[in-house]
Amino acid sequence: MSKQRSATLTEAQRVSLAQKLLRERLCHQKLPDRPVGLDSQYKHLLELLRRTAVHGESNSILIVDPRGSGKTMVRSIKRCTPLLMTRVAKRWKISSKFLKYSRNLENFPGIFWNIPGIFGNFAENLAFLLEALKKGDKSSSRPVLFVLDEFDLFAHHKNQTLLYNLLDVSQSAQTPVAVVGLTCRLDVLELLEKRVKSRFSHRQIHLFSSLSFSQYVDVVRAQLSLPPDFPDPKFSDEWNHSATKLCEEKSVEEILKRHFNASKDFCALHSLLFLAVSRVSVSRSTLREADLLEASRLISADSKANVLHGLSILELCLVIAMKHLNDTYDGEPFNFQMVHNGTTSLSAHGKPGRFKKPLCAFEHLLQLELVRPVDSGCHNSFFFFLSRGRNVLPYNVNFIRNYFNNNFQILLLYI
């Protein structure tokens, strides 16, 4: 059947299907079975949750790491444990499965059960859940897993009521509860109140990857390979062979090494590979070295320099005037009149004529975030701005010299 289907596929359909599969993989619509390069952390968390599920131990743990390094993917560990998954992410939500199990009056006697959704606010939801957990029993109640994504946001909540009650339940000999917090802040424990911190087990897992460059290349090869069940085995073999040879090219290895040394973040790697896969077409049905080189060039391009490409003459003059003000006054705030006077000085040098609507051009630069208000709470904040020297870097303004050297001599005279 697969042979008949592969025979009916045209070259365009094969390429389109291959791109679709790889894009789904690179856009995280299909996550791997387990995190890469985090085996010890994965086993640590799995063992902790197994003790909760098998022995009825209540535990709490915090997973700390930078964004994009695999915190959210650790949730897939729920497939390995017979736990009831109740996810909490920025809003409180009671799992429908939890309500279904908790309606069993033999496990939780003496509670008046309400229809789901009848609770009007967070306090009623929390009171209902805590009452159900407190009526539980370590030997007979079903273990519950709470995953608190963006744990630091809950720490900023007034009185930290949710954290206090969940951790308090995890310290009691009632319903077995595992509380897993996910955060990217290393100082998150400093945000906790004393009563909350005293109930936390102070277990932390840091997901700092120990991935080597050879493992990194293996991940690239695996991400670019088509699955064995691809409808056209011949096309799949050719594609996978080209992906393997691509990873062996010296120029490609240099690109991957540069990205590896800059960041081991797989999100950045997926962005690079996504651009390379998008360049595949019917005329070029396999990945080439030039595709990855172009993708790397696009990824490493300076976004602010690209913004300068689309500015008008007036807007460029305002940027140059702000650059000079920023250098002259060492980053001190300035107002629109000072910037406008700078463009008048430019007009005196090059005699380009009178500019129209400079305030509109200045507002456009504000929308592009090339400048920003000093203090949004100030009465005259709209007219007082600080040049984003960290964004409009000196080499970006100097870039104008090379870009407009043939067409706009006015700018060159002033620079």
Automatic annotation (TrEMBL):
A single Pfam family, by name?
Answer: AAA
Instruction: Respond yes or no to whether keyword Nucleus is given for this record.
Output: yes
Q: Where is the Origin recognition complex subunit 4 C-terminal domain?
A: 218-377
For this protein, the record's Gene3D superfamilies field holds:
P-loop containing nucleotide triphosphate hydrolases (3.40.50.300)
- One GO biological process from the UniProt record? DNA replication initiation
Write down the superkingdom of origin: Eukaryota
Q: Which UniProt keywords apply?
A: DNA replication, DNA-binding, Nucleus
InterPro entries, per this entry? ATPase_AAA_core (IPR003959), ORC4 (IPR016527), ORC4_C (IPR032705), P-loop_NTPase (IPR027417)
Q: Record's CDD domains?
A: AAA (cd00009)
Q: Name one GO molecular function term.
A: ATP binding
Query: Where does this protein chiefly localize?
Result: nucleus
Compartment(s) where it occurs, according to its Swiss-Prot or TrEMBL record: Nucleus
Domain ATPase AAA-type core residues, every copy: 62-202
Record's Gene Ontology CC terms? nuclear origin of replication recognition complex
Q: Which family does the entry's similarity section mention?
A: Belongs to the ORC4 family.
Protein's job: Component of the origin recognition complex (ORC) that binds origins of replication.
Name of this chain's protein? Origin recognition complex subunit 4
Protein source organism: Sinocyclocheilus rhinocerous
